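Field: COMPLEX_INPUT
Field: COMPONENT_COUNT = two
Field: RESIDUE_TOTAL = 825
Field: MODE = joint
Values follow.
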Amino acid sequence: MTTYVARRVLQMIPTVLLVMAIVFVVFRLMPGDPVQLILGADPDPEAVAALEARFGLDRPLVEQFGRWAFDAVRGDLGTSFAREEPVLGIILERFPATAQITVLAMILATLVGVPLGIVSALRQDSWLDLVVRTFSLLGFSMPRYWLAILLVIVFSLNLGWIPPAGYVAFTEDPLKNLHYAILPTVSLSLHIAAEQMRFIRSSMLDVIRQDYVRTARSKGVPERSVIVKHSLKNAFIPFLTIFGLQLGLVLGGSVIVEYIAAWPGIGWLTLQAINQRDYAVVQGVVLFSAVAFLVINLVVDLLYTVLDPRIQYA
Amino acid sequence: MLRNRHARPALLASTLLVVSLLLGSAVAQGDPVEGGEIEVALNAQGIRGLRTWQDNTANETHIYTIVYDTFVRYDESYNIVGGLFESWETDDATTWTFHVRDGVTWHDGVELVAQHFVDYFDAVQDPERGATTETISLFEGVSYEAVDDDTVRMVLPAPNAALLDAFSRQWLSRVEDYDSSAPVGTGPFRLVEWRRNEVMRFEANDAYWRDGLPHLDGVTVRMVPDATTRLNMLLTGEVDLVRSVPMAELDRLESAEDVQLVQTPDEFSISHWYLLFHNPEPALSDVRVRRAINLAIDRETLLQVTFGRGTIRSNAVAEGSWAFNPDARSYNERDVEAAQELMREAGYDPTSLDLELSLKYWEEWPENPQIAQIIQANLAEIGIQVTLELLEIGQWVDTVAYELDYELALTALVPSWDPDDQLGNTYQVDDGAALEWENQAFTDAWIAGRATADIDERREAYFEAQRIAMEEAPSAVLNGVPAFDAATADLRNVIRYNRGDIFYERMWLDR
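Field: COMPLEX_OUTPUT
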């Protein structure tokens, strides 16, 4: 197992380097110059030179990339051009907000999506299945930002139940924090729930037609036990894959939902950094998200061994 | 030849400045009530820091009104009054003596002295500090000294009566020990908490130098990037004030209870849409064609683009200005027949569409495409076939302002209140500016306007400059850009100045 983990970690390195190289090059190809954004139109050449030297932008691109990659390996993601503060600190400052709605959305989605997916599979082609599938399709089709807007119109402006936007840190006022978190959480969770619903339904349909399930039933194993012990556990292995992917994606920040809900997370930070051409922050966020994504998927792979002891990593 | 380094940057800055513009109107008031705190929703995009010499977006400047003070300022009648400089003297608009206001302290208790200004002037010119071009050029060739703790003397390389206007946009921060996480100012509120891109909290500065101000105990600024979300927060009572309301939302807000719209009286509006003519183009080098275009544009219809709000105008100087010349030629009223006659005189058949011109515009402001289309339709009536070319704003700036590769170009300008800038910014008194219009008589009049501190002499000079500009019509000044803020009805004395500033120290809550 240890060897496997070590191998996987080593395999991550080229992936991360490739992501770093792509984001580095793409952002330097984008129109817009961070120095000009800071100094304004028609800036003084001396001021430009001084600022470029301070940010290291006067060096060849290869050298800039090399320095950034070398520092990043040591945990230094550079300094924000706009704020002149360490990028890692800025990311960590915003990460709890994104992590909170990610965890809440994943919990909510799983609580809704998994049971409905199971019921839908067990009652295949019934009216209940039809309702669940329609709901799932709706969840898939509805853009998150649109759902967020609908929620605001109905529950904020008309009913006055939830605030349309805002944020208070959990440590400052837990109840208020959760109140504000409802909108982004629900907006994020519907799509996730819909995906989980369809996935668990399809996975369950596959499993309950397996010979070992038929055998269990013919042996007189109670239906509840057939579903929970024999079917669900096996259906969960592919589900875990999609769960890991969803978690990784949402943890990288949901730009639109955070933007609409004024939720100060990673997604909103990314958007701001792009607008300000703050290369250092964008590179840092992408690197952070890529590493988080890879680690989550590694953890998911390791969890397979827990659900199915037949899976062994050497 | 006069070199005005402000001209091109001013055109660019005006083009890129995408918000707050107008001069304030107070809501019916009553006796101020002391105490209470308000929350404000503000677009977070662009608040990089509070370095007054460098950070100059509309949102950053908005925060400056809370925590800093300007050197001088405009009062509600648009007269320059003392700020941190309590008074000043000049005989020739070249040598200026400024007296630092007594009894002003920074938020950490340090007394304000003349040396703080000198340190600021030094910092502005230090390339390492990265000051904006506009700020640097203000001090170019200027010598200055702190005569004593209370007096700053400045000697300019040439007379400039508009210096005070420029100083009304200079916010003083203490540069020698500037702390980006906790900047110190002299303003009505002091910063007590700043969670970047999330929230800024300010507490009343009990030692503020204006007696009896501020009325509020505190201000909390929440960063909310989406304009609709900001309005929803106002409508649900989450916040008390939002800035720069989109025009399409005005009807919704007007019909809402307990909400007030805050705008500038039309006559004080300084920002306007603007159609540049590239004067060296063969057709546009003929003053008759330029006048014909001005006469053909239907400014009444253009008003519909802004839902009937805003002002019809064709003069670069706002009607409320002391320098507005009511006798200068006006193009406010459309006259197609006269325009057609001018085209005929210039050798063009107004019924043939023989003359083809391109019009370059950008669409970051949603009204721009509609305005371009109206102009296209208007000019077709006098025989000009206009081809519209949409450019990304950065590309527009490069193509029009730097490469001068255009015939007609649409943008918006946000000049200052002083006629020196309203005329200089619009007609770009610069040998390399985008209009490429050179008129020595106009330039002489414009220079005469800034060369004296005497208001009557200045008025006379600007009257002449306007007369020439409106006769020659080197471009078309279009309608004023309306701008609105919105607040809860119980927030009193909300005044929006014509560059978008709102001064929190005068507000109070009637709750």
